[in-house]
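Lecture 7 notes: from sequence to structure.
We start with the chain below.
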Amino acid sequence: MRSRVRCGTAAAVLGGLLLAGCGDAETDSAGGSAAGAEPVTVTDCTGAKTTFSAAPEKIVTSNASSLELLLRLGAGDKVIGTGFPPGKGTLPAALDTQAQKVPVLSDTVIPKEKLLGSGADVYIDTFASMDGMGGGMGDAPTEEEFKAAGIKHIYLKSTACAAMAKGPVTDLTAVEDDITSLGQVTGTSAEAKKLVAGMRAKVDAVQKAVGDTPEDERPTYFFFDYDAGTKQPFVVCNRQVAHAVITLAGARNAFGDCDGDFKQVGWEDVIAKNPEWIQLGVRDRGSADANEKAFDEAEKWLKANSATKGLTAVKEDHFLRIGSEQTTIAGVENADTVEQIAQAVHPGKVD
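Predicted structure tokens for the same chain:
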């Protein structure tokens, strides 16, 4: 799965919807939900509204991330198809069993014709647009085409709207809003509240331990997106959820001065930052063994490459083996990643 998201074109994909950073779900009456008597209205990155008078019965997800959220919310039985499916064994046992039963409409981006003919009444899109990512992704339906097919198009705004954020993202509010909005839309608000509470408990514990660490005592941290290519690195900037994850963990994003979500830089820029810790951000390969092999390859590359072998983190073996998805894509596991990073860069301070 491609975790690199190009959201600068979000405004061009208007129509879809959902949370964070760019707006929240609202009900026409306090406490209402799509499963109840009151309609639920959600907005897209530009504020355009989509209203649900009832919980959707047939949902298609763009990738494993939005699928996983629905499974965690207990709405997995409504999913009739997905793109970018999770590999077998990549999700926790119970979720994995459910995920493997979901029809796969495409191993990558769902073809336009297949998506429009899927019979879905809502499409949950983790990204605002795939246009800038290359790789023969194909054309996305227009909002007019979605409407003609009877499909409401909504987004996970914490990722889809990231590039449009008005300032650095330093907490997981946008992700929590995504979960809350999905809960309202699917009639699973009670479970959404539990998921958000669990995330907050983990993050709050980390903040209590390392949150007051002075800026100059926070180690610099570089997210190495190995799968994005090694010729020129893609780095996470301060509008990306990974920046919030790193910040909450008591570290300093080496490229936190970059406004936006992602940016392509040169290795000379990484050398200039000379990070103290490096996350080997590989995408899930479908099994623990395959993931370890990918982590090994990423570490080996950094140690062998003339441009990176002299970095402080490389010389001191300060590597974290944490996958891309749970760091750069909105989800419950963002809180787990905060905890993992904090345990590594502040040993002894976080349980």
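Points to note: The chain has 13 helices and 13 strands. Residues 10-196 form a domain with the Rossmann fold fold (CATH 3.40.50.1980).
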